[in-house]
């Protein structure tokens, strides 16, 4: 029997240190496009992306990996008999999970498992950490996948965009909603649920939106972890992390940035919380 290989898409924003630590952890990149320029996600950060957007006037777009790119990543691993577990960002945000499943069909192997994380960024990293630990302990791939799917079902993702223009350009909200939201300075709290992006609530100021997000998390008392994610909001994210530490002492907490693909869809100034209930 071979080893178990873990594949993430690049929106996980996994650290280079984690990749170096685990030779059975791999990344399939999404792409970011601006006008005629195109980058693999890890080749551009949000600071550069938003600078170029301001300079050119073009809104960024993204592209999921083609099924053939997944199949190419699978081929050398599956050929030596290794089981493969693929963890993708939420199907609510991207067709990446469908591309991965089509890549499995192209590969023609029955030892490749695709898991829709139902989240992204830090939530995917936590799933990968669990999968790597279980693989190292000799747990079969099927059992790991079953638990990952339970983790996905117990994971919640909330976020507050600072502007609605990127969501509008990406087709997530209508033009009228974006215009009204901008004029009235409405700050929606968004969340991922059942394969779509939904509005949890709408408030009139950013601080009230953050506190509404905190109140939502407080409804869950038994948490496995909390992750604060943001783009260009380090001070605000640190303050939110302090609140979470005080509300949930002893619960593992992380604080980090998110990558350019999510930045392209959500815009600068986003802040979010990913958390998982204990299962």
UniProtKB/TrEMBL annotation:
UniProt entry keywords in alphabetical sequence: Lipid-binding
Domain of life of the organism encoding this protein: Bacteria
Cross-referenced InterPro entries: DegV, DegV_C, DegV_domain_contain
Single annotated GO MF: lipid binding
SUPFAM superfamilies: DAK1/DegV-like
Presence of the UniProt keyword Membrane in the record: no
Xref: PROSITE patterns: DEGV
Record flagged with keyword ATP-binding: no
PANTHER family (alphabetical): DEGV DOMAIN-CONTAINING PROTEIN DR_1986-RELATED (PTHR33434), FATTY ACID-BINDING PROTEIN TM_1468 (PTHR33434:SF2)
Protein's UniProt name: Degv
């Amino acid at each position: 029997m071979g080893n178990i290989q873990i594949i993430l898409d690049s929106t996980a924003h996994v650290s280079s240190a984690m990749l170096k630590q685990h030779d059975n952890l791999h990344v399939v990149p999404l792409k970011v496009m601006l006008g005629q320029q195109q980058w693999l996600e890890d080749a551009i950060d949000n600071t550069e992306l938003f600078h170029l957007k301001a300079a050119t006037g073009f809104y960024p777009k993204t592209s999921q990996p083609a099924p053939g790119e997944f199949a190419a990543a699978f081929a050398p691993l599956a050929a030596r008999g290794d089981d493969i577990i693929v963890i993708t960002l939420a199907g609510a945000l991207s067709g990446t999970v469908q591309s991965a499943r089509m890549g499995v069909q192209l590969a023609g192997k029955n030892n490749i498992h695709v898991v829709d994380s139902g989240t992204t960024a830090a939530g995917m990293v936590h799933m990968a950490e669990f999968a790597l630990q279980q693989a190292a302990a000799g747990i079969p791939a099927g059992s790991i996948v079953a638990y990952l799917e339970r983790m996905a079902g117990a994971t919640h993702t909330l976020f507050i965009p600072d502007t609605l223009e990127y969501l509008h350009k990406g087709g997530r909200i209508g033009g009228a909603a974006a215009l009204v939201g901008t004029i009235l300075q409405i700050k929606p709290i968004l969340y991922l649920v059942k394969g779509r992006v939904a509005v949890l609530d709408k408030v009139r100021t950013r601080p009230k939106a953050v506190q509404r997000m905190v109140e939502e998390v407080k409804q869950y008392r038994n948490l496995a972890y909390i992750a604060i994610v943001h783009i260009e909001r380090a001070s605000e994210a640190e303050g939110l992390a302090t609140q979470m530490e005080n509300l949930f002492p002893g619960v593992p907490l992380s604080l980090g940035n998110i990558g350019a693909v999510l930045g392209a869809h959500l815009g600068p100034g986003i802040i979010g919380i990913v958390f998982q209930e204990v299962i």
